[in-house]
Design a protein that fits this description.
By secondary structure, the protein is mostly helical. Helices cover about 80% and strands about 0% of the residues. The radius of gyration is 17 Å and the shape is globular. The termini are close together.
Length: about 250
């Protein structure tokens, strides 16, 4: 078990560096930040404060991204995902509030390992029929919501579904950003009415995460995707695998 650490200069530096790395990745591929940043936040502050901090970071970063390419959205499959996502997030946050920290940390470890497995399997499916798009959208949204409510990690099911119904990368990215903004607002609302938002959460987000997010975006926008993204993802997944195994011990 990791030691209980307060907010000192070492903690601030670690959180800032990990956040910058996470948002370089988001600038490159549009998602994947939570799977990097959440284990570190959970390590230092526990699952509940980590989820609140992560929700604020999601909201800020996705609003920042959406401003760039909103006018390019022509298709709206996020509407099929949204009902399941809303219900799933409610379920996930309800479990988070009731379960103990050790249980949640071990679940997080399992979630990380499963996420990495899906990346290496490179899952690709295509959904053509309209009724299947609706059914699978509800299911993918539900799974994403539960995972997001528990760990702030909702990207993988959403990305798998969007890849199955859309071909244009910009459309996929912007539909994803819309979903993440709505889900962040909903998650913050649920956490607030259940008295989970603490002074610690705000004190970490405002002075540490906001500058780190902006630095990560600035660096990521300068990196050539064709040369850097694959290597960057491989290194990140190796680090995450080690963290995931450590959280199960």
């Amino acid at each position: 078990m990791p030691p209980e650490l307060g907010i000192n200069i070492d903690t601030v530096l670690i959180i800032a560096i990990v956040t910058i790395i996470a948002y370089i990745l988001k600038a490159l591929i549009g998602f994947g930040t939570a799977i990097i940043i959440m284990p570190i936040l959970m390590y230092f502050f526990g699952p509940r404060d980590a989820l609140v901090i992560g929700a604020f970071a999601d909201l800020f970063s996705n609003v920042f991204l959406l401003k760039k390419e909103w006018t390019k959205i022509k298709e709206h499959p996020y509407l099929y995902l949204l009902p399941g996502l809303i219900i799933g997030t409610f379920i996930g946050v309800s479990i988070l509030i009731r379960e103990n920290d050790l249980f949640l940390k071990r679940l997080m470890g399992i979630a990380i390992i499963l996420y990495i497995a899906t990346q290496f399997l490179n899952i690709r499916i295509k959904i053509k029929k309209q009724e299947y798009k609706i059914i699978y959208g509800l299911f993918a949204g539900l799974i994403a919501g539960i995972s997001g409510g528990l760990f702030n990690i909702n990207g993988p099911p959403l990305v798998i579904y969007l890849n199955s119904v859309l071909d244009d990368k910009v459309e996929i990215r912007e539909n994803l950003v819309i979903l993440l903004i709505i889900d962040s607002l909903w998650r913050i609302f649920l956490l607030t009415i259940n008295h989970q938002v603490s002074e610690l959460s705000v004190s970490i987000f405002v002075p540490i995460l906001i500058p780190s997010i902006l630095i990560g975006f600035a660096i990521g926008s300068k990196i050539d995707q064709n040369l850097k993204t694959k290597a960057f993802k491989i290194i990140s997944h190796i680090v995450l695998l080690v963290i995931g195994i450590e959280m199960l011990i």
